[in-house]
Fold each of these.
Amino acid sequence: AQSVTQLGSHVSVSEGALVLLRCNYSSSVPPYLFWYVQYPNQGLQLLLKYTSAATLVKGINGFEAEFKKSETSFHLTKPSAHMSDAAEYFCAVSSNSGGSNYKLTFGKGTLLTVNP
Amino acid sequence: DTGVSQDPRHKITKRGQNVTFRCDPISEHNRLYWYRQTLGQGPEFLTYFQNEAQLEKSRLLSDRFSAERPKGSFSTLEIQRTEQGDSAMYLCASTLGSSGGFEQFFGPGTRLTVL
């Protein structure tokens, strides 16, 4: 079974500061990894994904993430936080169990607050 | 591409009533997923369709839940005899991909409140 652990249910940063959201995964096969963002009362929007190409992945809105197999991590970063980044962020791993269903297994999420 | 749509966006019902939600995926997306998200948690997988075939159901999907995808287009999720524990956001996602590396596109969700 695959699983995702997001360290820190709530992260607070000042506007302009570095954003670091942590994600560790467990997978018995090479994983596909995703970061999604969710604004209040909305669905999920893909920020970026890792699909076994480059280990440093760049996404939308200035976010990037680095896949580190030795640490089973896929942490999300952004050099300078904007007020508009305040949202909930979910790390997910794609599962391929018992057939090619590729369902997503999500972490519990990290709520990012950006202070002026 | 109009995106994934879900209807209704909000549903309030009394315990014991039946409810039905609809999901319209992006046209030509052959894979469709339902997830459930409770407060403070990430979405959890409920069920998966490839075209019109329901290929997997989570153990979270009790006998009171049923999902269909007639003709491989829109999908419906029905909950019979609702319970307060069914209160959650129900999310639908679709993708055209043939591997796990393809993005799943999510709808805005249906928020269910069971009184």
Amino acid sequence: QVHLQESGPGLVKPSETLSLTCTVSGGSINKLYWSWVRQPAGKGLEWIGRLYSDGTTNYNPSLKSRLTMSVDMSKNQFSLNLKSVTAADTAIYYCARCIATAGNNWFDSWGQGILVTVSA
Amino acid sequence: SSDLTQDPPVSVALGQTVKITCQGDSLRTYSASWYQQKPGQAPVLVLYDTNNRPSGIPDRFSGSTSGNTASLTITGTRAEDEADYYCNSRDTTGYQVVFGGGTKVTVL
């Protein structure tokens, strides 16, 4: 059973960069897709982006200009960097394993989530 | 805004059946998956590829699709099924992933 764990600062100042890491245990990160999803308090889920283990990425168009995702195979980790954050980026951030087929794309394992607050 | 539209909150009596829907043009091409989220917890996959249940998900959860609408049905609803339910699929381009806005299911 794969386990995902998010880590990173819980507080980021406006205009700075939000950086999170997801550590995967119980399975290899290789040859799979991995995603980030966020959820503002009291609101729905928002897909941030996904990356394949070879570093190929797909980003949510609304975040693409500020977003970078990367993978570290040696550590079985993948990361998220979101620059120039504002209060609107305050949310619980989840990492998830993404199963992608020709017909769909779903998330079968999730981290517990990490609350990131953007505030001075 | 979301490319997938879900029902407003619904209530269901204990033991009864509830069906919630997810509408979007992309569902004519791509299948839907469904997640259950309880307060303070991460989402849990309950159905993938329209009507497939991951290991450990009870068979009272089932799914279907017709045209641009995917549905999740809970038969014999239990108190522990009270949660928010989200659908997801690809968008119409096929390159992005989208979630519906969620439907809160209350068990009476």
